[in-house]
Amino acid sequence: MKGVVLVDKPEGITSFDVVHQMRRLYQTKQVGHTGTLDPMATGLLPICIGKATKIADYIADNRKAYVAHAVKGIRTDTFDTTGVVFAKSEIEIPEDPEPILDLFRGEQMQLPPMHSALKYKGRKLYEYARRGICVPRKERPINVSSLIILERNDDGLTLKAEVSSGTYIRTLIDDIGVAMGSFLTMDSLRRISVGDEKVEDAHTLDEIEAMDEDERQSILIPMDRLLDHVPAIHLPGHRKKPMLNGMSSRIHFQVDEAPLYRIYAGGDFIGIGTLEGNGEKRELYIKKVLY
Fold first, then answer.
1. What is the dotted CATH code of the domain comprising 2-61+196-219?
2. For residue 279, pLDDT beyond 80
3. What are phi and psi for residue 98, nearest 5 degrees?
4. Can you tell me whether residue 88 is helix, strand or coil?
5. DSSP annotation of 238
6. What does R_g of the chain's alpha carbons equal in angstroms?
7. How confident is residue 254, by pLDDT bands cut at 50, 70 and 90?
8. Are 128 and 219 a contacting pair, CB within 8 Å?
9. Any idea what the Cα angle at residue 259 is, between residues 257 and 265, rounded to 5°?
10. Residue 86: enclosing H or E segment and its boundaries?
């Protein structure tokens, strides 16, 4: 059994809570999620089942899109409305926010929030934050490929953002609010896509619970569908067995430079690999067998 089930996570539970339920429903311990959604967040959470757990980290690296609502006038220590307010502003959101939004589009550096699961000296940052301790953090490169305002209302605004892996939307919103002077704090978040997969195609936990075993199997999608951000190399069928046995394949054709490649042999997805060498002496090695 292998594949990915697209879950529409409800508000109020953790991503691991979803994993726990999928372990029970699919009767296997080989279950993993592909990028944490905070308890207050809802939306698309791809869950890897069986051998697909081996690519959970690769799927997590795919681009993601979110819709978030932010209230104006306050900042909190968590950058969302679950936190403690530490600053207020009566400045209104600019009539034309585009110049400010443009500052946050494209490649940039972002400082991760203290209330996050990243680790410092073996402990999660939120453990320090809950004790009132602020520890050093390094800015990380992110890419905001799309950032638009969907709606403005009396208490704030609704944003849609498509971002690279590792982007904290609540931090992005807080930074935008500071730049506006009006302050913004996220009070809802919904993940609407991961790569080309949409939340409209996801299943609620109640729907999956109501399915029989065959129906649950039928909703598993091929794991390579969520690896569209990783370029593919297609080999003839006779190279399948040698590659699966650890041998390399000489690549004589032009391929885009990338750190990793999806490897297909005879049309079958067999794993993730790397290219070594230069010019006409480039060898393809399988790094993770997934066949």
1. 3.30.2350.10
2. no
3. -55, -45
4. strand
5. G
6. 22
7. confident
8. no
9. 80
10. strand 85-88
Residues known to be catalytic: 38
Determine contact, residues 165/59, Cβ cutoff 8 Å.
Answer: no
Q: Which tokens in the block code for residue 244?
A: 């699966």
Would strands 2-9 and 41-50 be described as parallel, antiparallel, or unpaired? antiparallel
Is the CB of residue 163 less than 8 Å from the CB of residue 142? yes
Q: By the 8 A CB rule, do 157 and 151 touch?
A: yes
Name the one residue in this structure whose structure tokens are 């890419």. 143
Task: Give φ, ψ of 25 to 5 degrees.
Answer: -70, -35
Among 3.40.1000, 2.30.130, 1.10.287, 2.20.25, name the CATH number for the domain at 232-289: 2.30.130
Q: What angle do CA 64, 65, 67 make, to 5 degrees?
A: 145
Q: Residues in the chain, how many? A: 291
Quote the longest CA-to-CA distance of the chain. 69
Distance CA 186, CA 245 (A): 50
| Residue labelled with tokens 């980290």 | 57
Sign of CA dihedral 291, 47, 18, 13: positive
Q: 63: which strand partners?
A: none
Tell me the whole-structure pTM to 2 decimals: 0.91
Residue type, 277: G
Instruction: Give the Cα separation of 238 and 139 in Å (integer).
Output: 46
Cross-strand bridge partners of residue 106 = 144
Where in the chain are all domains bearing CATH 3.30.2350.10? 2-61+196-219, 64-194
Q: What is the pLDDT of residues 79-138, one digit of tens each?
A: 999 999 999 999 999 999 999 999 999 999 999 998 888 888 888 888 888 888 889 999
Q: Show the tokens assigned to 86.
A: 């530490």
Instruction: Please state, as a whole number, how many other Cβ atoms lie within 10 Å of the Cβ of residue 144.
Output: 19
Residue 284 forms beta bridges with which residues? 249, 275
What single-letter amino acid sits at 14? T
Q: Which of 107, 108, 115, 169 is nearest to 137 (CA)?
A: 115
